[in-house]
Amino acid sequence: MSDAIPAGWKSEDHVLYADASRQFLAQEVSPHIERWRKQGVVDRELWTKAGEAGFLGASIPEAYGGGGAPRSFDAVFFYEHARTGDSGWGVAIQSIVSHYITAYGSEEQKQRWLPGLASGERIAAVAMTEPGCGSDLQAVSTVAELENGQLRINGSKTFITNGQMANLICLVARTGEVAGAKGVSLVFVETEDAPGFRRGQNLEKLGMKGQDTSELFFEDVRVPESNLLGGSGGHGFIQLMKQLVWERLLIGVVALGAMDSMVEATASYTKERKLFSRRLFDLQNTRMKLAEAKTKAEVLRSFIGDCLERLDRGTLDPATASMAKWWGSQMQCEVADECLQLFGGYGYMAEYPIAQAFSDARAQKIYGGANEVMKELIARSLDV
Ligand SMILES: Cc1cc2nc3c(=O)[nH]c(=O)nc-3n(C[C@H](O)[C@H](O)[C@H](O)COP(=O)(O)OP(=O)(O)OC[C@H]3O[C@@H](n4cnc5c(N)ncnc54)[C@H](O)[C@@H]3O)c2cc1C
Q: Whose CA is nearest to atom 24 of ligand 1?
C-alpha cells in the first residue's frame, strides 16, 4: 500500500521507509491498541523499541544521534501510524519538540537532549495549555522567574499529551515583566531533577483513550537558567509560531492516515454485510458515500503532498499549514461520520474501530489550535 503515501514528493527512500514503518507498527502497535485503550497509556518500552529501530529520530541531525532525514520521513511514519487506528501513542510530539531544539537550541542543549529523544530514553511533551488559557496563548500565566541563575517555575498546565510519561517538557512560561507575547519563553524541564513538579490526572476523554493526556503542576520548580530555549527569554511566542507550522501540517497527515483507514474498513465491511438480498456495498447510497469519502481523501493527499514538499524546502508558511490542519481535520470528521453510518448500530459500539475512529477524530479540530484560529490565520494572510 505504498501508493497511499502522498504522491509527488515521495522518493524511493520514502517508500522503503513506509514499508519499514508498517512492519514495525504491525508488530509493536496494532496488537496492543485495545490494551492501551484500557490502561490509558502506551507501554514505556514502545518508546525505546521505536528509538532503537530509528523511528523517533529520523529527522534529528546525525550529529545528535538521529537519521538526518527531512521531516517528510517523520510524516510518513505518522501517516502509517494513523492508519493502524491507534491514537494513544503521542509520538508526533517527539518530532515537534526535537525541532524546537534543532531550530533554536544552543549547542549544549542539542547535545543534552536530542540523543535521548532519538533513542526514546527521553519522552517529550509540549505544555502550552492552562486551565485558563488555550487559544489565547499570550495570556499564559505560568511563570519562570530568574533567581540566582535558576528559573523558579510556578503554574499549572492541562490537556498535555504524553503527560504521564514525559520526562522532557517544553514549557511555555512567562519569564519577563513584559505583558503579552514578548514576555513568553520556552523553558525545558527534565522531570527527574525537578522537585515541586507533579503529574495530575490522566484525563478521561471522549476518544483517544490510549493517550495519557494529563494535568501538570509546577510548584517552585527550579531549573538552571540554561534550560531556557536558545539561552535568552522573550522569544517563546515567535518560536512557537514558527514551529506550529510543523505541528499543524502533521495533524493533516494524521487526518489522511485515519481517513484512508476508515474508507478501507468501510468498503470492506459493506462488501460483507448483506441486506435486502444484496451487499450493502451495492446500494447506490453506499457507493456514493464511499465515493465522496475517497475523493476527500485523495484531494487531501495531494494537498498534504504539496505541503510536505514545501516543508522540506523550508517554504511552508503558517497560513498554508493552517489550511492543512483545519481542512484535514474537518474532512476526517465528515468521513468518520459517513463511514460510521454505514456500519449501522455496530458503528456505535465502542469495540468497533469505526466508533473509536469517530471519537478520536473530534479532537483533531480542537488541538494544535482550534480550527477557528486556523481560519483567522488564513484570513490574516488575505488582509495584507
Ligand atoms: C486530546 C487533546 C490533546 C491535547 N494535547 C495538548 C498538548 O500536548 N499540549 C498543549 O499545550 N495542549 C494540548 N491540548 C490542548 C489544546 O491545544 C487546546 O484545547 C486548544 O488549543 C483550545 O484551547 P482551549 O481548550 O482552552 O479552548 P478555548 O481557547 O477556550 O477555545 C474554545 C473555543 O473557542 C473558539 N475560539 C477560540 N479562538 C477563537 C478565535 N480566534 N476566533 C473564533 N473562535 C475561537 C473555538 O471554537 C474553540 O474551540 C490538547 C487537547 C486535547 C483535546
A: 134
The whole-number pLDDT of residue 176 equals: 80
Contact 127, 169 (CB under 8 A): yes
- Gap from CA of 361 to ligand 1 centroid (Å): 15
One-letter amino acid at 113 equals: W
Average pLDDT over residues 278-291: 98
Cβ of 137 less than 6 Å from ligand 1:
no
What band does 8 get if pLDDT is binned at 50, 70 and 90? low
More confident of the two residues 135 and 6: 135
Report d(CA 264, CA 280) in Å as an integer.
15
Point out the catalytic residue in the list 247, 338, 351, 372. 247
pTM above 0.90, yes or no: yes
List the one residue out of 9, 79, 2, 67 whose CA is nearest residue 308.
Answer: 9
Q: How far is the CA of 133 from the centre of ligand 1 (A)?
A: 8
- Domains of the chain (ranges plus CATH)? 2-122 (1.10.540.10), 125-234 (2.40.110.10), 237-382 (1.20.140.10)
CA of 376 to the centre of ligand 1 (A): 14
d(CA 118, CA 47): 10
- For every residue of 201-250, DSSP letters joined together read EE---SS-TTS--EEEEEEEEEEEGGGBTTSSSS-HHHHHHHHHHHHHHH
Per-residue pLDDT at 231: 85
pLDDT in tens, 157-178: 999 999 999 999 999 999 987 8
Quote the CA–CA distance of 44 and 104 in Å, as a whole number: 28
In this predicted structure, the answer to whether residue 343 has a pLDDT above a threshold of 90 is yes
Residue nearest to atom 49 of ligand 1 (CA): 370
- Catalytic, 247? Answer yes
Residue 9: predicted pLDDT: 67
